[in-house]
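Below is how a single chain appears once it has passed through the pipeline. First comes the sequence as given, then the structure the pipeline wrote out for it. We keep one example in the README because the format questions we get most often are answered faster by looking than by reading.
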Amino acid sequence: MRFESPLALLLLIFAPLFLESLLRDRVFRIRKRRAADAVQFASPVDLGSLPVGPRVRFRSTLLSALQVGAYVLLVIALARPQLGRSFRETEASGHDIMLTLDLSGSMQAMDFFIDERRVTRLDALKSVVKEFIAARTGDRMGLVVFGENAFTQCPLTLDHGVLNEFIDAMEVGMAGQATAIGDGLAISLKRIRDIPGKSKVIVLVTDGKSNAGNISPEQATQIAKDLGVTVHVVGIGGPEPAPFPMKTVFGTTQLVKRELEYDAKTLKQIAETTGGQYFNAKDLSGLEQVYAAINTLEERQEKAAEFTEYSERF
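Resulting structure:
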């Protein structure tokens, strides 16, 4: 709320002049000699001692309140009260980002912790990826998952709510137990290559070594380079043994350590060839730092203008 002509409010100092004379005299402490209220007969009769009804008693106060109230409202109307509504126009240089995530059997390893609670690599990845999505307002993002096979879970979209639903629905092994890194990259490139845009990025996340698929990581990397697509690679874990949940004969679950294959050389080559960065995350904190770094590398530039429009409320 604002007043377009605030000087008009100075007229409020004259509001007491609209009080009934008796109240005005009390406000300004004016003392006057008054003739006794009387009716002239052959001899004067004093009416001051007669009882006064409530209508007469409150008449002066009520009339004063109505007159002053009307005057105050007129003065406020003269000051032109206005209600404003601000809005912001943003022009952003958005990116097209494909999240290419490994859902092979090794993502079931439970060597990550959230709030001191042991979780699978996939659960940790979900929590961090959703934070990354939330920070990329205005970017089109899509999701490709791969294991032994690769397929598109969500095409490029500005509806990040839908994308988060697909992230929540991911399960270990839903694309097979093996790891087809080349196919995952190829499907992502197919989805992103024909989309008009200045910046096209793939964020590849895997915890293993390519051991399946029709296209090798090297072939997919060369295609990405030819198309001018940047691939940032996030390696989870390493070659060290990792704990996996195993069912015992008694129906309980225990953790058993298993050896894992981890091809850091190929992952680094994918990133370097396409102009991206290679990261390795071995815990939740490291994974969060990786996505924060990617967020910085793919910084969005925004030009914003603020507008305010006012409507009269006189």
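The helical segments are 21-27, 54-78, 121-134, 160-169, 181-192, 217-227, 264-274, 284-297.

See the next section for the split statistics.
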